[in-house]
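Deviations from the work plan: none for this task. Representative record:
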Amino acid sequence: MAFLIRTIDVTASGREIVRDRTVDKGELSIGRASDNDIHLTDLAVEQHHISMKDAGGGMLSVESVGGLGFGLDGRTVTSGSIDPNVGGEVSVGTARLAISREGDGPVQIVIKQVEKDEGAGDVLQNFALASALPSKRTMAWIFAGAILLLLLSVPIVTHLIRSPVENDPDNLQQGQVVLDDAWSTGELSLKHHELEDNCEACHQTPFVSVQDETCLSCHEEIEDHADMPRQALGMPPMSTGDSLQWSIGETLGKEGPLGCVSCHTEHEGQVRQAAAKEAFCSDCHNELDTRLTDVDFGNASDFGEKHPQFRPAIYTAQFADKPVRVSLDDKPVEQSGLKFTHDEHMDPQGGVARMAISLTKYGAPLECSDCHSEWSDEGLIVQVSENGGKPSDYGDFAPVVMEDACESCHSLVFDRAGPQFRNLRHGDVDDLMADLATMDRGPRQPVVSGRGRPGQFARGGTYYSNFGRPMSAYIAVNRALERTGVCGECHIPTTTNGRRDLTPVNLPNRFLWQGHFSHAAHGDDVAECTDCHNAEESSEATDLLIPNLESCRDCHLGETAVKTEEITPSGCAMCHAYHTPTAPWKPEDHPEPGRNGGNDSVAALLGGLRR
Amino acid sequence: MASVPGNRFKQDERRRNADHVSFLKHRRYRWLWIAVLLCLATGLGYALIDQEPRPNGGSWYGYTLGTIGLGLIVWLSLLGIRKRKITAGNWSLKAWTSAHVYLGLALIVVGTLHTGFQIGWNVHTLAYFLMLLVIISGIYGVIVYATLPTTLSNNRNEMTRGEMLEALTAIDRQLESAAQPLGRQQSDLVIRALEQDVFYGGAWGRLTGTYPGCATNRALGGFPEVAGGVDGASERVRSLLVKRAEQLAQIRRQLRIRALLEIWLFIHIPATIALLAALFAHVVSVFYYW
């Protein structure tokens, strides 16, 4: 087998010296010793390092002689084979032996010296992913820096350099603090939603909690639940955990458990303030009398178990100036100045019923609603008077108006003028006297008795004249104001400064002042009027028909009661509000807020069903 | 002296345990149990403690969870410092790593409960998701550290990285001389294949193993396989190009496995630092606008 051995050396000046020689041997030895066929002057090479021989089939086999490896196509091996037609490279020391063959020619071995592995370590670094990505440290600095700059420094700096403005709900100064919406922990409640872009309106001082003063700058109409010092006195002693929490909170500017924000939490999403839980009230009111000994109302903790009897405000004496609160347990007697019998009016078999049936206005025995009407179909307590709804100092029902409710039976007609009837004016005794004094066509004594004038001169005719004395008018006045007179049918006669008069009518506009009650929520599908108001058995106007606590408990028990078809678990907030006991607080010019769907309260639900 | 071998065995066993038991199994999963207990305790507290009006990071329990979470995050990130100081004993690096993994997993529960499940476009949720990103990348890291090194070793096929590169260089030298008789067009193809950086392809190429611009593959397209080998030089270059492509494929498999093995750290570490920044912004902003 012939080998063409080509040695390429490079001179110091960079010139290549190429030497060719042909060796015709079956086996070729490679090593440092001079007797090798290929002699390599490199100390890293063994004296006799490699032997290369024909392996048949055009292949060359390469073997290590001394057992020390050599490089074959880059891998360190001790034996291997090369197909010269494809080519191969043997490396030993700094020498590279490229083996190839052109067609059927001799196997050509080109020997070159290479510089040993300069910078190989650096190249290996490229296997790490780090060589293809920005460094972890750079990325960390960029991300952390961006967060600290945009989400911390910008809001803080713009908050500190802003010029604070006084809050004005009609003219919000927005956007003074930049990027602080990234600090918002959640959307604001429905009523505060327009402040979403205006964090600094509430968060005025760094590291100080939202202050009551800030809340009151808009909510100036809000009332305290009670005097602040008394509220503090009325609170039960705090648990160790609570006092620890508050001592931490107060160092960061919280204003204690009586501050606005302790109840009015924000950033909980677009919702309304949820009604307080029973425990919120009972914490103080359960044993309030042990801490506030001078309160005139009883303790309360659970409507079903511990709640004082209702104390409606009524007039307990005729001529009284103002109503007084009387417990229903004390069998209150209402002195309204009126005579009235609910039982007679409501008896479906009685004379009143007969009369009502005969009148086209009723056509049936009287019902409650014939006399008592709600302020509006809405019947909701949140209506205000200016809008035609319920005035806030009235109950659900409008006062009974005599002209609408009574007069169709209790007629005040006293005269007839042509086709018209003349009614006595109602409401003022002076008007009544004036009306009756004009009754010149009243039934006077005829001048002659026994004979009537004929034709057009007869009573009722065109030329009829009454020449009798007008005395009967004054008599009629006197009789009207007597017990048996027309006024005495309903009113209690009296004498004022020697003149006949009527006892003033004293009916409260509202009976229960410390809670709110919705008749709408107790509509026809829940109860009839007479289920709660025992009118059918009331024979005296002095009967007070306000249902008592026990009758409410037929359906309403405390918050923890189990809900059944009959029992409605009822927390304090169903009837009581914190800031304004008679109704949920709302300033008069406040727009109607949105609602949390349709089921935010039993009242609204029942109201919706009714409508 | 009968007891000596027994003692010796125990001693050796202890040493073997210390040396060869995986950090995941360290001390019979001690930190796994501690992490599970932490999750159960915080979860139970969340379920039983009634927060008004709803669970929230700002309630006292929320602050408690937040403080635990903050402490854990700061401690977990200190592994980066701790691992550079190798010591033995109870607080050996292995114990520390074991705790790092399991307490890091427990942080998912603690952090999520701290949010009160209130998520929004804000710095607080940013911190939460950065935390999740760090934990998820960490989980990935544990999984690939457990599975990929075998694949990496198999792919090496008893070659070092240097040998792989050397093999490619050897092929390239042969290509250079084998390509001497070729015409312009084919020479250009060979030049381009030789000129292209072995590590061409970027991070994406490494991770997916796709190299659409590979010049060696393109050059192979210019050397059609001819039955019988009509043109000797062309045929030899083709054979060498095939060898080159095979060698490149091994290197690229190596790169891909390395990339899959290392990529999580490029998320884990920067996201941890970003998380610490976001956490700082979160805590400061909450109390700034209290």
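Chain A touches chain B through 68 residues (CB under 8 Å).
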